[in-house]
Design a protein that fits this description.
Blueprint: E1 18-27, H1 44-56, E2 62-64, E3 73-84, H2 104-113, E4 118-125, E5 138-146, E6 161-162, H3 169-176, E7 181-184, E8 198-209, E9 212-219, H4 226-238, H5 244-249, E10 268-274, H6 281-292
Helix pairs in contact: 1-2, 3-4
Length: 295
Amino acid sequence: MRPRPLRAPTSPDRTAGAVRLRLDIAYDGTEFAGWAVQAGQRTVAGVLDEALTTVFRAPVRLFAAGRTDTGVHATGQVAHVDVPDSALRYAYSRTRRDGEPEFLALTRRLARFLPADVRVLRVDRAASDFDARFSALRRHYAYRLSTAPYGVAPQLARYVTAWSRPLDVDAMAEASQNLLGLNDFAAFCRHREGATTIRDLQRLDWVRDGDLVTAQVSADAFCWSMVRSLVGAVLAVGEHRRDAAWLAGLLSASRRSSDFTAAPARGLTLVGVDYPPDDQLAARTVITRDLRKPR
């Protein structure tokens, strides 16, 4: 019998008798096949799940704010994990100094178990209604390109995309404003059966600093490959191969467009996730779950 393919898990309700922890995470995505666990692939979630399971001496699974694609980096990923209360004694010292974070010892211990290209920056006890994915208000990404004639400095080569053609950044910034708001971004998303492509794009700004061109992109959520596709389409405007009207017209498409190419993964970094105050987490989760239901 053919084995079933692994599916990315959906975030469950809080596990009975467990403590929910929030983890703030950074990683270099170059050597990872994305965030989500995949059979036979090295993934960020797979590496973290293994380290956490070792530390807690119990099987645990992380759920992230955003499942980044192959080669995409993060400095501000957020995830949650439910840990049996009995397993916490393996994680941290109960005799800590005044003002010391509760799980500082756990953060240090994870650093010994994790490879150099992924770090847990901080661990906190989460509010009772916190869900890294469904409680999120918005995600923030940065995309970086270099137009320098030599490409990209070696120290930045894993995180910045070399772009050899001239770019009209002013035209890119102006055209990008036509994409803001609540729209169907089907033209910018790889198809996923039953998934909605309606998103609230709240920011798509472009800034040039010498040879470095940076896009700041924020939305309530992003569908599969959406950020890189947005960048790729706007780059076509920046090269004067397309105009602003063409870009705006993509919002009327019902399927992914073949008129442009998604930008390479290496320039993309998840830089932050926003959450509401603790007393609004439950309401936000209800709203988000409803929005993500197949229609």
